[in-house]
Each structure stands twice: as structure tokens, then as C-alpha cells.
Amino acid sequence: MDMLTRIAALTAETLASLWPEAQGLPGAEEIRGLLSVPPNPEMGDYAFPCFRLAKALRMGPPVIAGKLAQAWPHAEVARAEALSGYLNFFLNRENFARETLTAVLAAGENYGSGTEGQGKTICLDYSSINIAKRFHIGHLSTTMIGHSLRRIYDFLGYKTVGINHLGDWGTQFGKMICAYKMWGTKEEVEQGGVDALTALYVRFHEEAEQNPALEDEGRAWFKKIEDGDPEALAIFNWFKDLTLKDAAKTYDLLGVTFDSYAGESFYNDKMEPVIQELRDKGLLVQSEGAWVVDLSEDNMPPCLILKKDGATLYATRDLAAAVYRHNTYHFDKCLYVVAYQQDLHFRQLFRVLEKMGYPWAKDCVHVAFGMVSFEGQALSTRKGNTVHLDDLLQEAIEKALAIIEEKSPDLPNKEEVARQVGIGAVVYSDLSNNRIKDIDFSWERALNFDGETGPYVQYTHARCCSLLRKAEEAGLTAEADYASLTDDESQALLRLMGRFPDVIREAADKYEPSMITRAVTDIAQAYNKFYYEHRILDGEPAEAAARVALTRAARDVIRVGLRLIGIEAPERM
């Protein structure tokens, strides 16, 4: 049992012993959620606000806090003082150090994991790259937020299903086939991959400006795809394979995997039953020749299901996808990690599912995120101002290698560490702020070894590993004296590590990986402050053993945190 849980349980016991007849008093779990860290360390390590109890006990919060403080008998855990309606707890620092380190070191790389997700399934729709287009930096956030959330839920015992909902449907694929048939060769496309497909697509639009009849040919080829024409499907699937082969290099660098690549085209034969269901339930109405679901009572525009010509849309396919996913995976939640510009689309989608009578519609969640710019420049595919993600990652690795060559020229595995640091810098930069905020990627910030960056946290982990190797070489075997960890620096680090399991759960509840990024950065900073203030391997053996144990715990928690946000933890840098 961690210290916060113990304090909460003891507070609940004390409340019950003082006021056994009172109704509506909070239990241990609620009390734990109310415990906070005072703004001034002199006011205590944790505080419980008694305002919540005033109505039930019919007395002022300061009086309640005073009575609780007088009755608090648990000096082995903490001493309690009343102040302005708060019950402030001052931990027994030696016991706190012992209990926290025992918990962290016993769990090791499973510290903070849980079983609350057992028997529950979470589908995550993320990355969703477009077929026949290069993977660019605009897909970084959806890919890494989704990947991190998946790792977090796996860590808490959930069954997760990673879905890459490919953008592989639309007239553009007919145009691309038309361009390939007119100007491309199999050899050129195989050799050039996605770049060759892009060049064909660009040429199609250039030629169509002079010869508008090409647009009709492009539509005709897409109609062949829709109708299952063998030649059209063969070329279409070949384009898809080339794209996924290209994207696989980037996914491998990022350590990202999926269980399903079922994209828009997968639902081509699954939309009609959904459309018919909308008709049968009286939800589909005609509007200016198109078929829509009226959402005026929800203060939303109508959800367009079929165009005038009978063509389906994103909403049609997403409705079919939602029904398929629930029928196939029986999810407890389905998360859509998609940019905030699609907010209306998902509000409409979820509301239509509700109107169709699906109770699980409430379990569908749009996990929105902000836009990405690069060195202050907005990105636009149409304007040709894009940054391809594989190019960005390779450049990050090269820049990291140059820094390592300068700082650690004798490092034996420089190329491997450069890969870990370069990729980690990019991922950390993406996951360091609240996901809804826009991001401006900057090389100077991302690769800084001294700021709040991926390399800084990774370097702290490597520092811990280095010190632990020295301790092993010194043959340190003494039993730890936890009384030597009662200083402010040690206690600050212990408090952060003690709270880390709560951060993981909060990140899961709020779909916010940046909470873990922030927590692991705070732990790295606290460890470095401890490191600079104390000679870890000097002094009495029992004192050194305690500080080495604190170092080992810090290493383990940092490694867990980095893994949950999709970053590797080098042991040497």
C-alpha cells in the first residue's frame, strides 16, 4: 500500500472513530483523491481539505481539522497538524523512504502497472496515413499519441486493438490509375515507390488542366475500383502495398505497430446495411437531393450520408467502421486520435450512433490534438511545404550523432545511441505539451541535453546506470540506512516516484500522454538535484547503500515513463 493510500485509509478510520453516527462522510478512496501537496513545503507533505465535511458534521472546517489532528495516532506514518481548515500531514520521512523504495524496487519495470483493465478492450484508431502519399510530420501527433495511449492501457491490463484506418478511398485513386496507365511503367513505380506515385498524380492534374476529359477517365477508373474490376483492384492494391512498405520503415524507427490496417476501402461492402438501418429507423431524410440525418435539435448541421449522385462520404464509412468494430472487438471504448479540426465530424458521428439506438455510442471518444509546424513554418501539402517524417527522423539521428561525437567520442555504440536519442528527441517534442496545443518543432529545443527534452531525460537515465555500475564495481553490499534519505532532495524525489502510478492512471483517464512526459521529466530533474547535492558513493556504507537504492529506483521509474511514451532508455550516453 502506497503512502497516500495509507494516509487516506487512516484518515477515514479516524473520521469514523470520532463521528461514528455521521452520514455522508467520504471513504478512503474519495479522501485519497482529495489529498494534495501544499504550496509551501513548510506546511507539510500532503494536505486534506476538511471543507467537504462541514455539512455532514455541522461544524466549521478549522474545528474539524483541529479535532482530526488531536485524534491522529499514526506517528509511524506521519504527524498531523490543523491549519485554516486543512489537515496537514508531515510524513515520517524514514518510513516513507523505506516503503516507497521497497515498492518501486520490488516492481522494477512493472512499477505503476495494474490489472484494472483485465477483461476490457480498448480500440485505438490512430496514424491513419493516406495511400500513395509520403508519411509527413503532420501524422506524427496522431501516431505517437495513439501509440503512447496504447502502451499505457496495455500497462494497466487492458486488451488493446491498434487500428490504422487507412485513407484509401476516393476519386484520386482512379486518377492515379489513369495516370499510371497513360505515363507510368511497373519498373519506374517499383523503383520510385510513393514518390513515383506522387509524381504521376501531379502530372495527372497538370495534364487535366489542358485536357479536362482526363477527369472523366479518372472517375471511370474509380468506378471500376468500386465495382470490383480485377485490373483496377490489382493496381489499387499494389499502390497500397507500396505505400505500406514505405511507411513500415518509419513505423519501425518509431517502434509503432498495429493490429489492423482496415481502411476506408474495407468498409465499401459494409455501408449499405448501415444506410438501410438509417432508413428503417426513419433517420434518413432528403435534403436538396442528398440524404442526411437531421441534427438540428443538437445545434449541429445535418450529417451527410449520401451525395446527390448516391456517393458515400467519410461519415458513411465511419458509421460502418464503428458498427464493425463493436461487433468484432466488443470494445469498452473506441478512441479516435484525430486532429481537432475534425471535432464536428466526430460529434455528428457519435450523435448519429446514439440516434440509431446504440448504447455504446457513449464509449466512442474523439482524442483531439493540435497542429504541427516546423521551425515556425506552417505546413501545407498543396503548397509543397511539407516535412516528410522519415527525413525528419533521419536528420534527428544524424544531428544526435554529431552531438554525441562531440560530447562522448569514446562511446562504443554511438550509432545505436544516436538512433535512440534522435528518435526520442522527436517523440518527446511531440508529447511534451498538452495534446490539444499546437506544436512548433524546433531542432534547438528538441536536441538540447540541458533543458526539458528527451535527451535530458535519457541522459539522466544513463547517469543512473553509470552510477549503479560504479556501485557494483565497488562491491557495495551494506544494508541501506533509510534515515540518510530524510533530506529535502531525497524526499522530493521520493514523493514524485510515489505519485507516479497515479499519474499513469490520470493520463489514461484523460487520454493525455503528456502527463507522463511531465512526470518523468520532473523525476529526472529531482534526481539531478539530489545527485548534485549529495556524494552518493561516499560516506558510510549504509548511507551509500540507501542512496544507491534511490538511484536504482529513479532509473527504473524513468525507464518505465520513457517506455510508456514510446522512447528508448540508453544505458550509456
Architecture overview:
The chain is 55% helix and 9% strand. The protein has helices spanning 3-18, 28-34, 54-57, 61-71, 93-107, 140-155, 171-183, 186-210, 213-227, 230-254, 271-280, 314-329, 343-355, 389-407, 414-431, 443-446, 454-473, 488-510, 514-533, 541-564; strands at residues 46-49, 78-83, 86-91, 121-125, 159-163, 284-287, 290-293, 303-306, 333-337, 364-367, 372-374, 439-441. It has a four-stranded parallel sheet, sandwiched between helices. Strands 1-3-2 form a three-stranded antiparallel sheet. Strands 6-7-8 form a three-stranded antiparallel sheet. Strand 2 (78-83) and strand 3 (86-91) form a beta hairpin. Helix 14 (389-407) crosses helix 15 (414-431) and helix 17 (454-473) packs across helix 19. The two termini are 36 Å apart. The relative contact order is 0.10.
Helical fraction equals 40-55%
CATH superfamily of the largest domain, by name, is HUPs
Shape: flat
Mean pLDDT: 92
What do we call the CATH topology of the largest domain? Rossmann fold
Enumerate the spans where pLDDT stays under 50 for 5 or more consecutive residues. Answer: 379-384
Measured between the Cα atoms of the first and last residue, the distance is 36 Å
Radius of gyration: 29 Å
What's the number of structural domains?
3
Please give the number of β-strands. Answer: 12
Helix-strand makeup class: alpha/beta
CATH architecture of the largest domain: 3-Layer(aba) Sandwich
CATH class call of the largest domain: Alpha Beta
Number of helical segments? 20
Main sheet?
Answer: 4 strands, parallel
